[in-house]
Write a structure and sequence with these properties.
alpha/beta; two-stranded parallel ribbon; 7 helices; globular
Length: about 220
């Protein structure tokens, strides 16, 4: 995949002022972002999060997943470290797109889990690919990272593209009654390296009264 760097600008956030780098994939028309903080050319491995777009979670505060919580926690941790990278990849709905994601949610409302819903629509459980990582990280000069992830596929992808993951750091935030089954499914069917027992529940929500099946 050929992804081209386009431009950079400052991005003030509640956690820090990041440098925002825009990239474009001419073949698909998709635009990807890298948010960086501090000097990436230092010898120490860079704290990094590879985050796939989730409009419902990242922008609309959905509690059906943990994506928005993960995004905010990753930015907070990078800001606290004073140095790091967050790659924001335009792969909505684990690669099936926003409208198909809504269709999948409709099936989940009827009782399917997140994997069953994707497969019922004719998609794989996870359609994302990560070839854009190579040109983006090459542009940033990042070769060694401490990766914030629960997903083994991201570890494999970075290894394939010549980036050494010296440490994996789990992201276990955002547990609530609406995503408990979703998180369990990611662990049991997608191989994510986590258990809901590892998660800190969202403040103000109790798991004592489970959400209805529609919340998977």
């Amino acid at each position: 995949m050929t992804v081209h760097f386009v431009a950079s600008a400052q991005l003030p956030t509640p956690w820090a002022t990041f440098q925002m780098h825009g990239f474009e994939d001419p073949a698909t028309g998709k635009e990807h972002l890298a948010l960086t903080l501090g000097d990436l050319q230092q010898a120490e491995p860079v704290l990094m999060r590879v985050h796939s777009e989730c409009l419902t979670g990242d922008a609309l505060f959905s509690m059906r997943c943990d994506c928005g919580y993960q995004l905010q926690e990753a930015l907070r941790q990078i800001a606290q470290a004073g140095r790091g990278v967050l790659l924001y990849l335009r792969q909505e709905g684990r690669g099936i797109g926003l409208l198909n994601k809504i269709r999948a949610y409709h099936l989940q409302d009827a009782g399917a889990d997140t994997v069953e819903a994707n497969e019922h629509l004719g998609f794989g459980a996870d359609m994302r690919e990560y070839s854009m990582l190579q040109p983006m990280l090459a542009h940033l000069g990042v070769k060694e990272v401490r990766l914030l992830t629960n997903n083994p596929r991201k570890l494999d992808a970075l290894s394939r593209y010549g980036v050494q993951v010296v440490e994996r750091l789990p992201l276990t935030t955002g547990l609530n009654p609406h995503n408990h089954n979703y998180l369990s499914t990611k662990a049991s069917k997608l191989g994510h390296m986590m258990s809901t027992a590892d998660f800190t529940p969202v403040q103000g929500f109790s798991l004592a009264t489970p959400a209805p099946k529609t919340a998977d």
